[in-house]
Amino acid sequence: MADREFAQLQSRLRALWPAVTLRSIGDVERTVVVVHSISMDVPDQLIPVFPAYEERFLCLVLSLLRSRKSRVVYVTSQPILPRLIDYYFGLVPELDTPDARSRFSVVSLVDGRNEPLTKKVLARPGAIERIRRLVAQPELAFLLPFATSRDEVELAVRLGIPLYGADPKLAWLGTKIGGRRVFAEEGVRHARGFEVGGERDVLQALRQLDGGRAIVKLDRGVSGLGNALVDVRRACDDGALAAAMELEDTEASVENYLAALADQGGIVEGLIEGDDLRSPSAQLRISPSGQVDILSTHDQVLGGPNGQTYFGCRFPADPEYAPQIAAEALTVGRRLAREGVIGRCAVDFVAVRTEAGWENSAIEINLRCGGTTHPFMAISTLTDGVYDPLAAEFRTRLGDVKHYVATDHLDSPAYQALTPDDLLDVVSERALGWDAERETGVALHMVSALAVAGRIGLTAVGDTPTDASALYRELKQTLDGLAAKAAGVRPDLPQPARGVPAASPRRQ
Q1: 0.90 cut: is pTM over it?
Q2: How many C-beta atoms lie closer than 10 Å to residue 98's C-beta?
């Protein structure tokens, strides 16, 4: 019965589509219920920042509220700091009005347990009823998730509103195995590799590769944390895979990794290497009628022990290859649309410079929002601009070209001595924030993770890539100095902090 109800709800999206695009279009009447729930397997070290992850779509709220008949219901595990809400409304001064604020409602569960937000909501009939009361016209409302699972389907059915995201039945398209199959069937260049079901399959696959290094990926791994590098010759000579593997997730054991591989399967690919290697991605939007739009391209910034973990991004991707990956992503997106996928998704690539030019290989499909989603929401909201995939340029409504650097990982143990108020104070006092007149500056996110995990996120927007990087460094240096002062350390001494490196590490 739930599947039938869900299908009926989803049929509404075609008629709702002009309102679902999430741009500030006229006086569209709609209610958007935002549930930024992480329903995927993630490492334990991310648990303290889960509530802050749920705040990453707050900038989107401003774009939605530009339409004077739009309402937003924002669901979180923990209450959002009132000053943080003030901060977001202050980014767009014309929206900081009693009317706009009255159309924004927060439903917080006050539950910090390590459990997906959607599961927490489903366990609380009172919270569901509260959301239902805030949705005055269900026929003009939809649920906006970060990712989709059976839990999001159940929540949509219980709220009586459609879900703007891929049906979980199509989740196989976003797995590593599913992605390779789509690339092969659609003629999209991808790395040489094989599907595997366990350790024995991996060894057989490695023997078919030409030495060097290979990469093993868990079928349902996310953000590079399900990846492992393998010395092919060592593994084949010794016949012992475990000793030849380097895991990206430092908290996992090789034994547990191989058990997960046997359970869910995965892929083995020859590692693409080169002196100049990048990790670009293209972000797509698929409508209920099957229209596919290229929203953006990014150069992903990666770190971690083997350069496989997502840390941030630069926008747009290098114009030397951005139009090519956009075209390849469009081919993939049209296949996804034919399968019935709707919502936001992305295709990741590896680009390596050769004598003949850039050579791009698709490596995976993400059927969800991701680390590049909210920074692009931020620049779109703050400038009301659009990305031209052929020119690889983003232009504001006034025609000005903009670039940004973004991260969710500006962190340091020293930052835990600070509070969100400390950060917001210094950003205001030193004019480090968003300049609405020049349409440049820094927009913050994940501010509530500062004291608990020593981490924040930010999107630094500039007129050029150099300007954007300079804004990022200025805020980082300010935060380092503030933390050093709080700890009684000389601010001129170097302090360790992670964030967007000077150059993109490798990833496949």
Answers
A1: yes
A2: 7
